[in-house]
Amino acid sequence: MIVNTDLHLHSNFSMAVSKWMSPSAILQGCIRKGIGAVGTGDASHPVWRKAWDEYLENDAGITIVPTMEVQGEGRVHHLILTASLEIAEAISDRLAPSSRTIHSAGRPHVALSGEDIARIVHEEGGVIGPAHAFTPWTGIYGKFCSLKDCYNDESPDFLELGLSADSSYGAGIPELKDIPFVSNSDAHSPTPLKIGREFNRIDIKSESPAAVIESVCRGKILLNAGLFPEEGKYNRTACATCYHQFSVLEAEMNGWRCPYDSGTIKVGVRDRAEQMSTGPLSRRPPYLHTIPLGEIIQKVLGTSLPNTRKCQALYDDYIACFGCEIAALTDAAPEEIAEVHPGVAEAVQDLRSGRITLHPGGGGKYGTFSLQSAEN
What we know:
The chain has 15 helices and 15 strands. By secondary structure, the protein is α/β, with parallel strands linked by helices. The strands form five sheets. It has a six-stranded mixed β-sheet with strand order 3-2-1-9-10-13, covered by helices on one side. Strands 4-5-6 form a three-stranded antiparallel β-sheet, with helices on one face. Helix 13 runs antiparallel to helix 14. The relative contact order is 0.13.
């Protein structure tokens, strides 16, 4: 059974998350996007766990995987997947003595090493991996030189690439040769602009959280999909204050201080991955670079935002025609897309053919893109 999965998002108990984030809104976003298995996010929080009780079985047939993200020592973030809310609660209880925020914050801070967190997760029956692994502030490779430096003998079960990386960034790192890569949205809003903006297409034995986790850990990932890495906030080495971009050599010559405003220069995901890629490329599932349909429609219609009434009406037409966004973007024939709107069809063809201009992000500022057909 083939299913699209998004296993990392957040609740409104986390910082900078939409007040509209709720289990029902997440499920509606998944239906429109085409996500068949979704993480709860923030399953360490008792109120958020309780909110999911009535949605574990849902009319949409979406598999609910209890997940959480925690911040351990060194500010490194870890993504945890569990087969049940009971396991998530047991992990939360084990972490509680080392956390002041385990019951109040969606993404709690835990005063434990990555090894200790991973040991607790494994002992309780969960799986764990570094979240957005290359991100300079809170990714494992922003803080450590290897997985072992963080996890010691408690090996991670997977690695999340993050929005600023695709699978090519990790394919040449020797220690990752046998580690499955996952791509998740890290969504802070339930809209299809965020939910499923990165996803995994996996082969599962059954529609259960345990089956989803098994397929991830056994590498039964048929496809990773997500933004072009250049669109991520940390893709290029840049100043964290003014966002001016630098080469690594320039950053080193300036002592990692911006010569324009004295801000901190943070190494970009691209440069960090290149530094660590010292081995042959490991074989990986195909990586599909994609852009949310709403953003494509915005470019084509020339509106200021993708959630204008005009954009939303056209987006709704595509969902009515193809059932979900992922089907329209990845499976629909160009002539079928053109029947709804010729300009969008041209833009999707640009995307599929790589006729796209990328303006890379860095230092905490998202990158942008332009499509050839939308510029004409």
